[in-house]
Amino acid sequence: MGAHNETQASMTNTQGRNPRRHDSGAVRIESLTLLEIESILSSDAHYAATQTRNYGERDPLHDPADCLFRCPCGNTPVLNYAAPPPNALRLLSRPLSRGDGNAFYVGCPACGKVGQPSLRDWRAVIDWNYLTASVQAGSLGAVPYFNLAGLTAQQAKDRLNSIKYDLSLRRAQAKMRREQGDDVGGRFLARIDAYLGWANVAIRVLTTSPSPAPDLVHARPQVA
Questions:
Q1: Which tens digit of pLDDT belongs to each residue from 62-110?
Q2: pTM, to two decimals
């Protein structure tokens, strides 16, 4: 499963209890109404529980290839835009919708390892980094968002969980408003999805066995 799909969060109720607490009364964000979501987002309890909305200066939709992790073989991967090879297509749970057959995917020219193709370059990069973080994890400084460098493992986990819950609520709010006819920009939603994906990458880096940190490498898209 790609990192961007891991956006589930839980809550108990909207009356002052910790919305990130999991217990027998927890419900999915997807089961909440827009009014309930906005009540949580505007509450003092949620404001206090959300550690930050300052994720860093870098825009996750801009030049995402600059943040690629190295391949597990040690070589530099490349963000491609072309017809994905068969081993990349096998990673998809459903076919790509674009008619020309081209997509973004990350591949290693040295060993042939590939990531999941996507119609979005930032998503292809996030899925590759999630895939390779378990092999090259070890330093939260490798993650260019959320200001995690210097935190203990528990501090980083708490920050990431609070960020994911806040982003998941804001994502659900935006989608519901769009369904009601409000003008919700596509890039606004994409940016939320990208930050959620990077939060999952960071958690993957945090929770795998320590090893040399993944390098941030420069790999511009290759256009077929």
A1: 999 999 999 988 899 999 999 998 888 888 877 777 677 899 999 999 9
A2: 0.76
